[in-house]
Write a structure and sequence with these properties.
Responsible for synthesis of pseudouridine from uracil. It catalyses: a uridine in RNA = a pseudouridine in RNA. Keywords: Isomerase, RNA-binding. Pfam families: PseudoU_synth_2. The protein is α+β, with helices and mostly antiparallel strands. The chain folds into 3 domains: 63 residues, RNA-binding S4 domain (Structural Genomics Hypothetical 15.5 Kd Protein In mrcA-pckA Intergenic Region, Chain A), CATH 3.10.290; 94 residues, Pseudouridine synthase; 144 residues, Pseudouridine synthase, CATH 3.30.2350. Helix content is 20%, strand content 28%. The chain is elongated. It starts with 5 loop residues before the first strand and ends with a helix.
Length: 312
């Protein structure tokens, strides 16, 4: 990334005399008044060597100094070692990792935190160049707030084979979720389409016109306030488990975005939903053997589960 800063000095032409600074900048530089106002708010604009406010009027011949900060590409992969990412398996075709909470799989607009692809680049892994630049080699995703096992393709062939396997649902994806209350029946299938929430674009919901989504669950442990479920995903929609559990009125413990009890969340010391990608099983893209990789509960989830088990 470059630290270059672009500074430009221009003189206000006769035709813009009397205009507000933000309007004059928009005309002179060809960008929006919103961007002009943003630069002014950051104190990056001076008129005749005095810091401008957006409602100031400019006079003909006034000297306008504008500093443009270097705008880094939000999709740029920044190589950096990310604490907590554990390599479960590595060969010439694939690398399987244990992703901690708080790490995104790849860069995206609005996310400035650590990423899996950034870590792999920083650790010297060569991964497939298939896929969009910021998510090369990525054949599956886990939410920032979800931990657990995931696979990344290292060769073009393995990318193609694994992408196909996920598309045709031959990959076995097993999660554990601690949900509020006790689902009835104790084991079952949720077959309900998921789409973007009509009022909150950061959320998803069961929607009649959503995408086909199927979740299978089985109760492993039932406790006073919550149940530990084993969940197998047939499809892989964004927030699928969280949305389907909330639709059953049994949201993941700690998932306040989807209606979890904030009091219980606080009591368990959770800062995210209790959801973990436990197991991933698939045909190895080179050998064709059936392989399976597992991850154990991270400390925050293990602690919360112990507290739930102890509550009578």
């Amino acid at each position: 990334m470059s630290d270059r800063v672009d500074r430009r000095t221009v003189f206000v032409p006769e035709g813009l005399a009397g205009e507000r600074v933000d309007a004059a900048m928009a005309r002179m530089f060809g960008f929006s008044r919103t961007k002009a106002a943003d630069l002014i708010a950051q104190q990056l604009v001076q008129v005749d060597s005095v810091a401008a406010s957006k409602s100031d009027r400019v006079s003909a011949g006034a000297m306008l100094d504008v500093t443009f900060p270097d705008e880094t590409d939000p999709l740029e992969v920044v190589p950096e070692i990310v604490e907590g990412i554990r390599i479960i398996h590595d060969d010439d075709s694939i690398v399987v990792i244990d992703k901690p909470v708080g790490v995104a799989v790849h860069p995206s607009p609005g996310w400035s935190g650590p990423t899996v692809v950034g870590h792999l680049a920083g650790a010297g892994f060569r991964i497939s160049t298939s896929g969009a630049k910021e998510r090369e080699g990525i054949v599956q995703r886990l939410d920032v707030g979800t931990s657990g096992v995931m696979v990344i393709a290292k060769s073009e062939h393995s990318y193609s084979v694994l992408k196909n396997a996920f598309r045709h649902r031959t990959v076995e994806k097993t999660y554990h979720a601690l949900v509020q209350g006790h689902p009835d029946p104790l084991s079952g299938t949720v077959d309900a389409p998921i789409g973007r929430h009509p009022r909150h674009d950061y959320k998803f919901a069961v929607m009649a016109d959503g995408r086909h989504s199927v979740t299978h669950y089985e109760t492993l442990e039932a406790h006073r306030f919550a149940s530990l479920l084993q969940i197998r995903l047939e499809t892989g929609r964004t927030h699928q488990i969280r949305v389907h559990m909330a639709a059953l009125k049994h949201p993941c413990v700690g998932d306040t975005t989807y209606g979890a009890d904030p009091t219980l969340t606080k009591r368990l010391g959770l800062e995210r939903q209790w959801l973990h990608a436990m197991k991933l099983g698939f045909e190895h893209p080179e050998s064709g053997e059936q392989v399976e990789y597992e991850s154990s509960y991270p400390d925050d989830l293990a602690h919360a589960l112990e507290v739930i088990r102890d509550e009578r």
